[in-house]
Recover the amino acids of this structure.
């Protein structure tokens, strides 16, 4: 059965800390892995990863994919209270072009 | 450019009633996907519409139905509401499901 597992489920750190969020997957015919940030309602897109070993960066956020070990990590450096959110990972596959499988998310709380 | 819009924002219904949720996609997008997100969970795929047809469906009963109009906007209908249907309903638009999806703010449905 295809699945996406995120860890940890929740994480509490202090401002300025660096965090690493994990997303592992078991999906047939993998095509892409996407990271989203969800604060109050709508998830907002962060990264899409399709190739192994190529880091994507946006400010203090970065992400990398390992297609051999079937996981991705999302790093946030110098965390700020505004980074508090649920971080969602989703994986798409080629056999069915019309679905993403979502992880349950990691709830990140940044304390001042 | 207006992003994805959804209406209403909040809705309270009683068991057995029917509900219609609405979504307008981001300009230039022709594909609309609907998700149900229970508290503390990742989004669960309900179905996707493209060219006014349901292209793919997740594991949801027939009580969940939808429609897409020629202007690409979409409706989600849920009949015979159950308490377990209480959730955040998210609409996402895209031009290719496996590329980034843009989410609307969601509709919070409460069934009492």
């Amino acid at each position: 059965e295809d699945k996406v597992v995120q860890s940890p489920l929740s994480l509490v750190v202090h401002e300025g800390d660096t965090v690493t969020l994990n997303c592992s997957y078991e999906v047939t015919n993998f095509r892409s892995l996407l990271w989203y940030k969800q604060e109050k309602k709508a998830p907002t897109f962060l990264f899409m990863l399709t190739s192994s070993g190529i880091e994507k960066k946006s400010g203090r956020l970065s992400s990398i994919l390992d297609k051999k070990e079937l996981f991705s990590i999302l790093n946030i450096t110098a965390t700020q209270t505004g980074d508090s959110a649920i971080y969602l990972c989703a994986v798409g596959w080629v056999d069915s072009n019309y679905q993403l499988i979502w992880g349950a998310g990691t709830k990140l709380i940044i304390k001042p | 450019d207006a992003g994805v819009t959804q209406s209403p924002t909040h809705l309270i219904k009683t068991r057995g009633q029917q509900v219609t949720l609405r979504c307008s996609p981001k300009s230039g997008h022709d594909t609309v996907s609907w998700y149900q997100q229970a508290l503390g969970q990742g989004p669960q795929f309900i179905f996707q519409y493209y060219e006014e047809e349901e292209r793919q469906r997740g594991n949801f009963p027939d009580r969940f139905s939808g429609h897409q109009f020629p202007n690409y906007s979409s409706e989600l209908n849920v009949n015979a509401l159950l308490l377990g249907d209480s959730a955040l309903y998210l609409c996402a638009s895209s031009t290719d499901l496996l590329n980034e999806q843009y989410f609307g703010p969601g509709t919070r449905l409460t069934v009492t």
Summary: The mean pLDDT of chain B is 91. Chain B touches chain A at residues 4, 33, 40-45, 48, 50, 55-56, 58, 88, 90, 97-106 (CB under 8 Å). The two ends of chain B are 37 Å apart (CA to CA).
